[in-house]
């Protein structure tokens, strides 16, 4: 005997989406705001970072659809199904402002009243188990959707799907359904009807199912338009409570598609109504997700891609690495124009395709070239990062202090460009990679930093300098928890010009005193005292901006950053910048391919200047201003530029007066400029290990000994610079020892490790085997490394 039941309960067993949304509709359709390319970012094994992303409270999304897509991808990877539990609408415009997604096993089924209608009843499997797993996102005032509530634990067993398939609508071409149409499975029929609905312009839900009494397998599925039936009317309600008028979502539409399973295993269309009672969408743009048989099928509407294109059934289009757009016909000029018009970023589809092809071509020519690519709902570029072998070599040698320059993004007429830079041993700018970033969310910066550090072989920098931005600060603390992060003081002061403009105008002396407080305070206590004096003098104690700046003083005030290495020698030595070059060429009208080409040319100029300085350093000898043994020593070690800096410190040290203030094995000295007795520096010298430090902390921040320590060296008869105070990054041999193969090996091992983790986590038994094998392999690697080290030291 076979029975029929409402699909509101049964569909959860084989669908990734619960089609019963108590608040909105009885289906769940995902907007194309993330379309195929974004689906690839979250599902494709080539996008390791997205695939391994974990939700967290505070995580931001550009839209509700992005949040849905992310949680669906996470659920599919972990191994559970999702449905919408709650929603909240704005009282102003009825738009959704809150969504709560829960595990499909959340809650419990209501017990129906007992009655006997003479029919034999089949005991239903319980699919609700009171699971508390959920994620809730709320739209903030600035437009972003933020995770406010999160429960990750399930009270039932979850299992990750074994594989992920991407099925585009063109897999079925432009075929229309007809009676007698055959499918190999009900999943194939479901995928076909979703594709047809997406192309025609309506949404689908599962209405009825019938199962076999023998083995509980499906033998009938009925799919209907979401406007089938009528929205129930509430007969009783509390009139004291204000009610909003809901827009009816059911209009009595009769369109439906029913398939039944035949004895020979095929599924046949047995009932079909194509006519709708309502208008269809002109340009449908929905993405549906179906989970069954340990697969996640992503079915997307790709618009004009279906036009005049004949594709045989069962064809599957897979996204390539970093959002392969190769399935888009670049010759279709109409589609290119259409996509460019609706693209919300400054980059069009043609631009995006050209840049991706450029990256692929460059990587084919040089396997050490690294790039990461992310596109939006229209296959237009949203994020990109790239770095070549020279950037990796530069980072290997000079990547201890890094600047992330996002200042170009502040000009809306410029390309949203991000650049990783540092300084080499000639105090010239060096490049550690480029990026394009169309938004400034924390998630976007996390994506950027994670891809950047992969390209740089996984070595974290000692310090990171950025413009002031809350999102990038949070991203750095997540990706580089041990790295010292500082905000650029100049950028903070520029913000002060905006926030305190009225004070700057009405109080002529404020700016001078404010900056003196920042630059001349030798200790944190002195700074905080001077700060309070300024607030009191100018009656700014309640100023919210200054309160905020004081709360983050450890990240931008110089006196709090004396122990952070930044490779900044002096204010007068400024490395070369791309600002003028960038402002001249890189406006929003510049194509991405031209941008990449111009950057390559600019970097060629940088590399040539570095090579010329390397040559000059090797074949010329600097002029000594005084016959000092220490100067003769470092003249053979430092580059010309660094020697000039050191020699300036040495000569200036001769004009300082030294007084011992504490005697012993560790002695302290007061070092003062003759004509400026008000400025005193304290130098400590340990005679046992010949180590020293100064209150100015120049060596800690710049890696060059200050004039105060050099003056004490003369006093204690230190005539040669100790090796511990010669940083390799400032020497002629700074670039010796770099092996490019190291980066190649790292990247290959990283990719293999991600594949290993994916396969090894599919089940508990497989995980046990994978964990054991990994521990054995890791022990062998350590043993091999130890053996090589011991042989080298023999």
UniProtKB/TrEMBL annotation:
Residues 681-717 form the SWIM-type domain. Keywords: Metal-binding, Zinc, Zinc-finger. Residues 1-20 are annotated as: Disordered. It comes from the Eukaryota. GO terms for molecular function: zinc ion binding. Pfam families: FAR1 (PF03101), MULE (PF10551), SWIM (PF04434). Residues 1-11 have a biased composition (Acidic residues). This is (wild Malaysian banana) hypothetical protein. It comes from Musa acuminata subsp. malaccensis.
């Amino acid at each position: 005997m076979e029975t029929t039941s409402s699909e509101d309960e049964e569909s959860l067993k084989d669908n990734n989406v619960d089609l019963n949304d108590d608040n909105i509709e009885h289906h769940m359709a995902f907007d194309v705001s993330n379309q195929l390319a974004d689906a690839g970012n979250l599902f494709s094994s080539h996008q390791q970072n997205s695939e391994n992303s974990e939700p967290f409270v505070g995580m931001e999304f550009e839209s509700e659809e992005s949040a849905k897509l992310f949680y669906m991808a996470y659920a599919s990877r972990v191994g559970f199904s999702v449905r919408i539990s709650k929603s909240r609408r704005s009282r102003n415009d009825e738009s959704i402002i809150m969504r709560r997604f829960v595990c499909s096993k959340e809650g419990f089924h209501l017990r129906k009243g007992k009655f006997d209608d003479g029919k034999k009843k089949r005991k239903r499997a319980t699919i609700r188990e009171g699971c508390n797993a959920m994620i809730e996102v709320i739209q903030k005032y600035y437009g972003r959707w933020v995770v406010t509530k999160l429960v990750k634990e399930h009270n039932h067993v979850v299992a990750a799907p074994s594989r992920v398939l991407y099925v585009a609508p063109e897999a079925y071409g432009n075929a229309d359904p007809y009676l007698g149409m055959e499918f190999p499975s009900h999943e194939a029929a479901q995928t076909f009807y979703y594709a047809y609905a997406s192309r025609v312009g309506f949404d689908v839900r599962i209405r009825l199912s019938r199962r076999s009494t023998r083995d509980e397998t499906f033998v009938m599925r009925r799919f209907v338009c979401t406007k089938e039936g009528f929205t129930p009317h509430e007969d009783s309600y509390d009139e004291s409570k204000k009610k909003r008028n809901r827009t009816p979502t059911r209009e009595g539409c009769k369109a439906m598609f029913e398939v039944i399973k035949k004895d020979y295993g095929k599924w046949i269309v047995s009932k079909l109504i194509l006519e709708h009672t309502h208008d269809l969408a002109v340009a449908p743009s929905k993405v549906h997700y179906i989970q069954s048989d340990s697969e996640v099928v992503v079915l997307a509407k790709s618009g004009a891609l279906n036009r005049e294109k004949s594709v045989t059934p069962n064809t599957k289009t897979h996204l390539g690495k970093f959002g392969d757009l190769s399935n888009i016909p670049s010759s279709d000029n109409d589609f290119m124009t259409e996509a460019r018009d609706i693209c919300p970023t400054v980059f069009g589809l043609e631009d995006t395709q050209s840049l991706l092809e450029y990256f692929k071509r460059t990587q084919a020519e040089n396997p050490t070239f690294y790039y990461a690519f992310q596109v939006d709902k229209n296959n237009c570029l949203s994020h990109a990062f790239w770095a070549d072998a020279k950037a990796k070599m530069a980072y290997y040698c000079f990547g201890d202090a890094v600047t992330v320059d996002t200042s170009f993004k502040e000009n809306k007429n410029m390309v949203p460009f991000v650049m990783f830079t540092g300084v080499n041993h000639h105090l010239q700018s060096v490049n550690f990679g480029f990026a394009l970033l169309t938004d400034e969310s924390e998630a976007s910066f996390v994506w950027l930093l994670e891809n950047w550090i992969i390209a740089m072989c996984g070595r974290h920098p000692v310090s990171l300098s950025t413009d002031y931005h809350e999102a990038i600060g949070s991203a750095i603390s997540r990706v580089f928890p041990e790295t010292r992060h500082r905000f650029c003081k100049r950028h903070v002061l520029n913000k002060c010009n905006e926030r305190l403009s009225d004070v700057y105008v009405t109080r002529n002396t404020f700016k001078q005193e404010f900056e003196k407080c920042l630059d001349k305070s030798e200790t944190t206590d002195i700074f905080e005292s001077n700060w309070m004096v300024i607030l009191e003098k100018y009656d700014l104690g309640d100023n919210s901006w200054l309160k905020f700046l004081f709360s983050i003083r450890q990240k931008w005030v110089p006196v709090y950053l004396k122990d952070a290495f930044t490779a900044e020698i002096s204010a007068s030595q400024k490395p070369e910048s791309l600002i003028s070059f960038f402002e001249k060429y890189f406006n929003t009208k510049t194509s991405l391919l031209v941008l990449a080409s111009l950057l390559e040319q600019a970097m060629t100029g940088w590399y040539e200047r570095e090579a010329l300085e390397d040559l000059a350093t090797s074949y010329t000898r600097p002029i000594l201003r005084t016959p000092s043994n220490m100067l003769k020593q470092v003249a053979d070690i430092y580059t010309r530029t660094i020697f000039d800096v050191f020699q300036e410190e040495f000569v200036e040290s001769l004009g300082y007066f030294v007084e011992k203030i504490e005697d012993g094995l560790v002695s302290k000295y007061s070092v003062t400029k003759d004509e400026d007795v008000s400025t005193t520096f304290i130098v400590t010298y340990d005679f046992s290990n010949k180590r020293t430090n100064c209150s100015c902390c120049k060596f800690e921040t710049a890696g060059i000994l200050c004039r105060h320590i050099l003056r004490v060296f003369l006093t204690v008869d230190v005539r040669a610079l100790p090796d511990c105070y010669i940083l390799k990054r400032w020497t002629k041999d700074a670039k010796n020892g770099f092996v490019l193969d190291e980066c190649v090996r790292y990247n290959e091992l990283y990719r293999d490790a991600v594949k290993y983790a994916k396969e090894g986590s599919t089940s508990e038994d497989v995980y046990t085997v994978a964990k054991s094998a990994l521990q054995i392999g890791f022990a062998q690697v350590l043993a091999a490394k130890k053996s090589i080290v011991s042989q080298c030291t023999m």
